[in-house]
Amino acid sequence: MTNKLLLSGGCLRPNGFELGEGKYYKSARLIELDILTKSFRIVVQKDVAGDNYPAEHPNLQFTCGCIVDKHLWLPTDTEVHLYRLEDFSLVKIISHPCFHNLHSVAYINNELVITSTGLDNIVFCDPNTGEINRILNTQGKDPWHRFDRSFDYRKIHSTRPHDSHPNFTFELDQQVWVTRCTQEDAVN
């Protein structure tokens, strides 16, 4: 894949913006772009939501993933998918009730670090079992100071307004960092 890029995103619903927050995208797409030939192909397409989404007008899009050991971890709004890069076959899906409006997944220190933007949290999961190791709020508060931990946030479209709106997790000096849209910064 030296001359190829993977582009993640979604296809807008014709009336998505009229429907409101969290209902914009009707289909998730992962596209492989060959930068030498300028050709592309759809390698993964998700048109059907399933149990981990709102019943009506689910927001289907792929957000920012990461590649680890010939595999691609790729989030949707409410799930993290694992694909084999050689054939883009689906290996597994991880989802939890605290997954809402996922923006990115990173593999740091043998953990999946997932931005649950809708809850202003970072969720650390075991990549093998999918179990949650811990949850951190991106403002240093209790992760459940605004939300009910017993509620399934995958079933609703929006939790706006967000206090910090975390976007992207990354590793710097062997520590986990996250960008925050509201504060226009990155914090450890």
Coarse structural class: mainly beta
Total helices: the number is 1
Which strand order does the major sheet show? 4-5-6-7
What percentage of the residues does DSSP assign to strands (E)? over 45%
Helix content: under 10%
User: Termini separation (Å)?
Assistant: 32 Å
Mean pLDDT over the full residue set: 97
Quick one: overall form? globular
Give me the Rg, rounded: 16 Å
Description of the molecule:
The chain has 188 residues and is mainly β. The chain has one helix and 14 strands. A four-stranded antiparallel sheet has the order 4-5-6-7, with no helix packed on it. The longest helix has 4 residues, at 16-19.
Topology:
Elements: E1 4-12, H1 16-19, E2 25-34, E3 39-46, E4 66-68, E5 71-75, E6 80-84, E7 90-94, E8 102-108, E9 111-116, E10 121-125, E11 132-137, E12 166-172, E13 175-180, E14 185-187
Antiparallel strand pairs: 1-2, 2-3, 4-5, 5-6, 6-7, 8-9, 9-10, 10-11, 12-13, 13-14
Q: Brief description of this entry?
A:
The protein is mostly beta strands.
Quickly list its features:
about 190 residues; mainly beta
